[in-house]
From TrEMBL, chains A, B:
Presence of keyword NADP: yes
Protein name: L-threonate dehydrogenase
Record's function text: Catalyzes oxidation of L-threonate to 2-oxo-tetronate. Can use either NAD(+) or NADP(+) as cosubstrate, with a preference for NAD(+).
Domain 3-hydroxyisobutyrate dehydrogenase-like NAD-binding: 176-296
GO molecular function (one): NADP binding
EC class: oxidoreductase
Catalytic activity, as annotated: L-threonate + NAD(+) = 2-dehydro-L-erythronate + NADH + H(+)
Amino acid sequence: MSSLSEAPGRTVVAAVIGLGSMGLGMARSMKRAGLDVTGYDIAPTAVDRFIADGGRGAATPANAAKDADIVVSVVVNSAQTEAVLFGAGGVTETMRPGAVFVSSATMDPAVARDLSQRVEALGFHYLDAPVSGGAAKAESGELTIMASGSPRAFDTARPALHAMAGKIYELGDAAGTGAAFKMINQLLAGVHIAAACEAITFAAKQGLDLDKVYEVITASAGNSWMFENRIPHVLAGNYAPLSTIEIFVKDLGIVQDMARSERYPVPLVAAALQMYLAASGAGMGRDDDSSLARLYAQLSGTQLPGLSGKPQS
Amino acid sequence: MSSLSEAPGRTVVAAVIGLGSMGLGMARSMKRAGLDVTGYDIAPTAVDRFIADGGRGAATPANAAKDADIVVSVVVNSAQTEAVLFGAGGVTETMRPGAVFVSSATMDPAVARDLSQRVEALGFHYLDAPVSGGAAKAESGELTIMASGSPRAFDTARPALHAMAGKIYELGDAAGTGAAFKMINQLLAGVHIAAACEAITFAAKQGLDLDKVYEVITASAGNSWMFENRIPHVLAGNYAPLSTIEIFVKDLGIVQDMARSERYPVPLVAAALQMYLAASGAGMGRDDDSSLARLYAQLSGTQLPGLSGKPQS
């Protein structure tokens, strides 16, 4: 098998499975970089959106991945990833021998290791490559990718990685390490959003000037990336989903399951997860994750900007 | 009463009560700015240290505050602040009429309001002025001060504030507001340290390269000011106290008490406080607050840099 980097003259054939806000941006970035990209999504309207952009669409993952050198999977979780690979109409039916499967869904590292072994047994490469950065960075090709896999997996995937990412962390040759780094990031991100919402609503409860709180905290030792990024949604009273409550129900759930199986206590994660569950149970699951502030407001009779006594939903 | 800013020709007389790592730096900064500073501490060795620097020492708060225009109190909590003001040998016995008491201890806003009323009833001004920034910034006169109080309190205190602070937030004319802002900061700071320690030790449990984890997280959405500042202590295995576990036992305790009395749920604070209590109970109360990582290691059989199986203490 020759890796793509050894054959610079040929156009790289790629598929993107999952054309949500992240996958669509990643597909567009790859197309802009000169790759021959076909997209698939379980929702036909998402495929149509990519076609309207000048992209090529397919009716199944297998059709999208036909003769592909690189298949980038940007689905929600490990179950969907497994279906994309091995389900009826899955990509392993049609990928070019020696092609690489780039797996971006956040998942338990043990599951990533298992998928990697099964993919490699079929003569393909597997790159464990979760991403961070959000839809805007996906669109501009400036994502952060936390990747691990064999040198051949990296080499084969490199045209797609360079098209999608501003920063690529190469974290070793074993699948699972990329996933583990992503879970550490999600642990912190999920707890920090909950702490930010607990704090800003507590400030509101005390009648403090919330714009001033934002100014002081972002210049102080209490700051976090998430406080700085999410609290403006609360100050604007705008809970339109950029990243949803359900994402953290899922990701902190994975962290809690991993930690339980490793006999590792995670009291902060456990407390935060209960709040995401409560927000979801109260009807805010598909709203922005900063909706935890609305939950705290509801639980304490506190007024927040843009909200009446009863939270919107 | 004429405020000091109206009498620029006269040397400002000031006292600093509490010459720990913060108070000593603040006293030195005020002295460097040309104020006539007398220091007091309950520990005579702390006073001697200030005298060895060329400062003037006193045997009681009242002696230190004799004819002072500005008294800066940098003690541990509200009980000590009350004793400094109204106990035997307290500063209100000797402060110049119209002088200002600058209160820097972290405390419940309701207590700050009460102390302010009692001080003002005696003909003095009160500035609610918690600080943030640590010993190095105290020494260089670059603290952040979150202050509230009457315009006269601000005017009278200004020579000391300018000497101590790089940034002064003026948060309104009511005592208690400065204290409330500080508690919001401490809520976040305390939760973020616990989350950072939960995450880095979980990464160690999974055998990840911790230096790489630090590099990736500080460039990702999971970052916090505290993760960036405290995790290097864990990576170096150095738990010498810069700020102690007991500080957050105290400060998250205040947050929890405030929240309980306001019927406001703080599940993240509650979970974090239990970990600080456990660290204190396990003998790490006077060690650096990053010792929570050692606690997580102990509770999960995880190796951390510089630690044998049994945690040092």
